[in-house]
Write a structure and sequence with these properties.
- Helix content is 51%, strand content 15%.
- It has 311 residues and is of the alpha/beta class.
- The chain folds into 2 domains: 6-223, Spore Coat Polysaccharide Biosynthesis Protein SpsA, Chain A (Alpha-Beta Complex), CATH 3.90.550; 227-294.
- α9 runs antiparallel to α10 (261-295).
- It is elongated, with a radius of gyration of 25 Å.
- The chain binds uridine-5'-diphosphate and magnesium ion.
- Residues 95, 97, 99, 201, 206 line the site of magnesium ion (MG).
Length: 311
């Protein structure tokens, strides 16, 4: 077990201010695990001195590997690219900016050695982030939990350790819009949290612009929930029931004291609108199925097999 290889995967985008300090702390944390390790940086199209610094670090340390994108493809694809290159028996994904403390890595590795397949960082507190970010993040994770068909743990980011077999399953999923923490939850396996206080960025500014944040949030919901596709249908069904009740009330009223003709028209309008939305919902259900097929995820994932050697 002690000689099992660990891979640290780090996406990097315009991070010249933090890169060197970050490498020192990550390197020390990896060293303290006592395992052989590799560190894989993926430069996600930075145009500052990021590559210059990475070239220097890679020159001085042969276990540091670097892949550099031709342009900015986004954080989730940078992580995927690093994972594609990783050779380790366990992969650890971490942000370069030291918001996720690298000092937690040895503890994650210990948990992995005790048999946990996925160890994910769970933020108990966020330091140095704006009220806007804290509130939107908290609201989003709760919305996602409600929407998602799979339990995505609250307040978790991409800081996590994945056993090789989990990483291999993850890499079989080649969908374009990627949401790592959701995919990790979708895959299942034995997953345990490790609590931590999310630190302030060591240097530099956040690279997640509002636009990028919204895209990730959207990918998270659309990738793991068909609820948005069926909401219209549910609403339409509600309208149909409402117009049905209205019709009964109108008939009763017509038999007793008479009703204004426009009330019939209004009820008819609600019914037609309700039916239209119902059909939209039905279409949504089919679209959801097509979407699931197109994603081409594995049909199932086997975590363990007994007495199943090939004949
Ligand atoms: N990042 C990336 N590509 C991007 C945006 C960010 O590779 O387009 C990297 C970034 O360098 C960092 C990690 O993803 O290692 C998280 O980004 P950031 O710290 O800016 O996001 P925040 O923590 O503010 O949500
Ligand atoms: Mg950050």
């Amino acid at each position: 077990m002690e000689n099992k290889l660990l891979s640290l995967v780090i996406p990097v985008y315009f991070e010249q201010e933090v890169l060197e300090e970050s490498f020192d702390r990550m390197d020390a944390a990896m060293k303290s695990t006592g395992h052989p390790y590799e560190i894989i940086y993926v430069n996600d199209g930075s145009r500052d001195d990021t590559m210059k610094i990475l070239r220097k670090i890679a020159k001085e340390h042969d276990y540091v590997k670097v892949r550099s994108f031709s342009r900015n493809f986004g954080h989730q694809l940078a992580v995927t690219c690093g994972m594609d290159a990783a050779k380790g028996d366990a992969l650890i994904i971490i942000d370069v900016d030291l918001q996720d403390p690298p000092e937690l890595i040895p503890k994650m590795v210990e948990m992995w050695k005790e048999g946990v397949d996925v160890v994910y960082g769970q933020r108990q507190k966020r330091e140095g982030e704006t009220i806007f970010k804290k509130l939107t993040a908290a609201a989003y994770y709760r919305l996602l939990k409600w929407m998602s068909a799979y339990p995505i743990p609250l307040d978790t980011g991409d800081f996590r350790l994945l056993d090789r077999k989990v990483a291999d399953c993850f890499l079989k999923m080649r969908e374009q819009a990627r949401f790592l923490r959701g995919m990790s939850a979708w895959m299942g396996f034995e997953a345990k949290p490790i609590g931590y206080v999310r630190q302030e960025r060591a240097a530099g500014k956040t690279k997640y612009t509002l636009k990028k944040m919204l895209k990730l949030a959207f990918d998270g919901i659309t990738g793991f929930s068909s609820k948005p596709l069926t909401i219209a249908g549910k609403f339409g069904l509600g309208l149909c029931v409402l117009s049905g009740m209205g019709l009964i009330a109108l008939i009763v009223l017509a038999c007793t004291c008479g009703v204004a003709p426009w009330l019939w028209a209004l009820d008819g309008l609600v019914l037609v609108q309700g039916l239209t939305l119902c059909f939209l919902g039905i279409q949504g259900m089919y679209m959801g199925r097509i979407y699931d097929e197109v994603k081409g995820r594995p049909l199932y994932i086997v975590a363990e097999e007994l007495n199943m050697e090939s004949k």
